[in-house]
Amino acid sequence: MEIVAIDQISPDQVILFTWGFVTINATLLYTWLIMGLLVGGSMVITKDLSTDRTMSRWQNLLEVIVGTIRAEIREIAHEGTDTYFPFIATLFLFILFSNIFTFIPGYVAPTSSLTTTAAMAIMVFVAVPMYGIAKNGIVEYLKEYFRPTFIFFPFHVMGEFSRTLALAVRLFGNLMSHEKVIAILLAVTPLFFPVIMQALGLLIGVIQAYIFAILAMVYIASATQSHEEAGHKPKKDTEAVKI
Questions:
Q1: b or e along 101-129 (b: 16 or more beta carbons within 10 Å of the residue's beta carbon)?
Q2: Assign residue 137 a region: left if phi > 0, alpha if psi is -120 to 50, beta otherwise?
Q3: Cis peptide before 148, with omega less than 30 degrees from 0?
Q4: What SS3 class is residue 4?
Q5: For the segment 152-205, what is each residue's pLDDT rounded down to a tens digit?
Q6: Intra-chain end-to-end CA distance of the chain, in Å
Q7: DSSP readout, 33-87?
Q8: At 242, which helix (H) or strand (E)?
Q9: Local confidence band at 121 (pLDDT 50, 70, 90 cut-offs)
Q10: Is residue 124 within 8 Å of residue 167, measured between CB atoms?
Q11: β-pair partners for 18
Q12: Which of 87, 174, 175, 207 is least buried, going by the fewest C-beta atoms within 10 A?
């Protein structure tokens, strides 16, 4: 069962509750459910952590996820893993869990809404200069916009906005188009093809979460490492960068 009609492009258009100026749509509802699931699951799993081999299966799974994300960050940034981990891991886990529940009837991924993907892209847009300034200082960070000459300043600015727009539209387009394809197949074909598409959708959801997190880390790494590549020494040890 799909709650987003075929002629509706976003779960923002599915109004579930209205009281005065307060409106709750499907995007808000499922976003809160995913956030509640992540917070509740983290509290339950980390309640009784063990340091020996008798750890629970959930703790073992959580350590595998944390170790994998840390390894990917270290592969891209080479340093400051602990600094970037909370932001990158939060992005990845929210997108991942938002996408993988699409096999549940009536569920709509909040990442199929442009407002959700745009909000996450804006967070990346803000995080990139924050990490860059925290590591290299505001003067050195701003100098990057005028290299190799001041003529390139508008192009650097346009690049910042265009990649933010690309982040938002890529994730929204992939998830929205997948849900529309499923709705069309359910309307015109038997059960066989929609089941295949749902299985394919799980794979697409995981890949999109991975791509979004990796691109966010690449953008942050480009802002923090460009000065070292240009021969400028950072002002302080990057392993202890604090935001």
A1: bbeeeebbbbbbbbbbbbebbebbbebbe
A2: left
A3: yes
A4: coil
A5: 889 989 988 998 899 889 888 888 887 777 777 776 666 666 677 777 778 888
A6: 44
A7: HHHHHHHHHHHHHTTT--SSTT--HHHHHHHHHHHHHHHHHHHHHSS-HHHHHHH
A8: none
A9: very high
A10: yes
A11: 23
A12: 207
DSSP H helices in the chain: 26-45, 57-77, 81-100, 114-136, 138-143, 153-188, 192-229
* pLDDT bucket at 237, cuts 50 / 70 / 90: very low
| pTM of the entire predicted model | 0.83
Q: Which has the minimum average pLDDT: 101-105, 128-132, 168-172, 178-182?
A: 178-182
Nearest to 201 by CA among 91, 100, 113, 110: 100
| Number of other residues whose CB lies within 10 A of the CB of residue 138 | 11
Closest of 122, 238, 99 to residue 176, by C-alpha: 99
Q: How far lies 92's CA from each of 140, 209, 215, 216, in Å? A: 30, 5, 11, 10
Using only C-alpha atoms, what is the Rg of the chain?
21
List CB contacts of 147: < 8 A, sequence separation 6 or more. Answer: 230
**Amino acid type, 12:** D
Q: How far is CA 38 from the centre of its chain?
A: 14
